[in-house]
Amino acid sequence: MAAKTARSKATPTKENGVRVEEGLSLFKSDKFDADAYVQSKCSINEKDIKQLCSYLLDLKRASAEEMRRSVYANYPAFIRTSKEISDLEGELSSIRNLLSTQATLIHGLADGVKIDDDKVSDESLANGLLNFEDNDLSDLEKWAAEFPDHLDALLAERRVDEALAAFDEGEILVSQANEKQTLGPSVLSSLQFAISERKQKLADQLARAACQPSTRGGELRSAIAALKRLGDGPRAHTVLLDAHFQRYQYNMQSLRPSSTSYGGAYTAALSQLVFSAISQASSDSLGIFGKEPAYSSELVTWATKQTEAFSLLVKRHALASSAAAGGLRAAAECAQIALGHCSLLEARGLSLCPVLLKHFKPIVEQALEANLKRIEENTAAMAAADDWVLTYPPAGSRHASTAFQNKLTSSAHRFNLMVQDFFEDVGPLLSMQLGSKALEGLFRVFNSYVDVLIRALPGSIEEEEANFEGSCSKIVQMAETEANQLALLANASLLADELLPRAAMKLSLDQTGHRTDDPRRPSDRQNRNPEQREWKRRLLSTVDKLKDAFCRQHALDLIFTEEGDSHLSADMYINIDGNGEDVDWFPSLIFQELFAKLNRMASLAADMFVGRERFATSLLMRLTETVILWLSGDQSFWDEIEEGPRPLGPLGLRQLYLDMKFVMCFASQGRYLSRNLHRGTNEIISKALAAFTATGMDPYSELPEDDWFNDICVDAMERLSGKTKGNNGEVNSPTASVSAQSVSSARSHGSY
Description:
Blueprint: H1 6-28, H2 34-42, H3 46-110, H4 122-127, H5 139-156, H6 160-180, H7 185-210, H8 217-229, H9 233-251, H10 263-289, H11 293-324, H12 328-343, H13 353-383, H14 410-425, H15 435-455, H16 460-467, H17 482-504, H18 530-559, H19 571-574, H20 589-608, H21 613-633, H22 635-643, H23 650-669, H24 675-693, H25 699-702, H26 706-720
Helix pairs in contact: 1-3, 3-11, 5-6, 5-7, 6-7, 7-8, 8-9, 9-10, 9-11, 10-11, 10-12, 11-12, 11-13, 12-13, 13-14, 13-15, 14-17, 15-17, 15-18, 17-18, 17-20, 18-21, 20-21, 21-24, 23-24, 23-26
């Protein structure tokens, strides 16, 4: 997709390399059968083809990223070596010329040529030539004497093309004269010196002219081409790059950033100047010097240096202030503008975006973190005054007129609105590979909001004070009623299951370039980003924390009194046999209250979780499981039943069995009978039967038939629900008719 730590930078590279290695391991095997592999892939369906295409694209991206990282890891050393080789070649050429000159002089001396100093005029010395008093000079010698003056005239009149042609002509004649020995060694040496001196003079003129800001593009290219023809290619290329640098530096004088100016406008203007100069320099370099590695390396080094300088300017004048203020949109827009201009250079073989990312990524990450922190703090402030009543989005808000209107409390509406705005800003973060960091940051913010919702549960106050005594927690409005507490769950579940994943889909694009959240396109689960599916799973697991806290609180409210006494003790079953009174068979009070609580919550949830009935069902299922599993795991309860001074009697066993049957009946009727609940009730019944059997009695001889329990459970549910039976009959106690034969082998308690 730097404030990401060094570990987070290195990990994706390592993971990409491992992923590519694993993908290629199949093809490296000696047992790889190409025909069988192709046949297996040809028999796949359309869904598998899409997955294969997606997998291959991931491999392509990973390999390209790995290659790019490898190239940039060694590129500075390559450029430095190339530069040193180029400099060494120039020095070798200079040494060769010096040796050639020395050889010519030595050859002349060896021939015994003597030059009389008195015969040399001051004027001829100035011209670098020797004029002899001999009046019988040849035409070539006369030309050699006049040629320096001709060159001086051409240079004075700035007739560059003619001067270059004259240099070529002079060098050809010098070469021929050297071969045929038509000129004396001293004259030849003086002529070579005159040509070399005037070449240097022309080169200096061309270099000065090229670096003038007023020099137009065509004139610059002509000057550089002429400088190259003079035989000094490295200098010509360096002058070309310096000329482009001087030109855009001159143009930058009109850019004066100020505290009131718009950072995006400054970034756009500056990046237009810098990257246009780099683009033009690249074009001129390729047109004049071709693809010679030494010049290409110098171009890349120069372009990288200019990009570094540009990055620092943008960071100082545009990004820093935006990031400090938490302006993610402004910071991301500035970075996106610069990256957009920079990416256009990739067509010319200049991949400079990593240079920008090295400077921009940390500061945009700073803005990202500041933005997430603002969401967290504003939401917590809203929660301090939230009445936990579900409402539609406030009228006039941006999301009030959308097709996705959902009921949330005020703090959740605020959280959702800020998240939607946040994801409107993070589109440019994809080009900086910050999409994963944005998702991770938002997960932390949502997790913090869920913690706020947990603190809003009344039962969490004492627990928080016990666990964090002396700590300073944020103030939050308590959710006093069951409706308020269910609203907490409605907030968390709707945000995690629908609103946040839908907003996060703006981070992913399909292969056609359309956003996957486009309402005009049907949703496609197979096209979702695996990273976002895993992110949604983590959001939902965070909601489970709130769900567990909710169920634990309500289970404890049912089981314990305010004074700490238990409503669910062993005595309520053991004491039944010692009362000596007729028993009015009905489920125990605590399970009546559990049934009533579940009915109330189911009625409230029907209005709060419209379209999300599955979540409401799982909540009721979890609450029932919490009570039953607590009873199953209460060691003090079972110690009293199994080893207490008074054993569990027949009536107590029947009451416990009736309570468990009642739980199974209303859970089955409400469609929240789970495997955990089924296993928990069976375990409780099995323990009770084992404890009763230990007294020496047969439990099945004391238990009525299942129909008796079922009738009582149905009657209890109707009476507790305010319903009346179709007939006015009463449920009679079948104690007298109970026998061991009346209970079938199905009463093993593992089969219902």
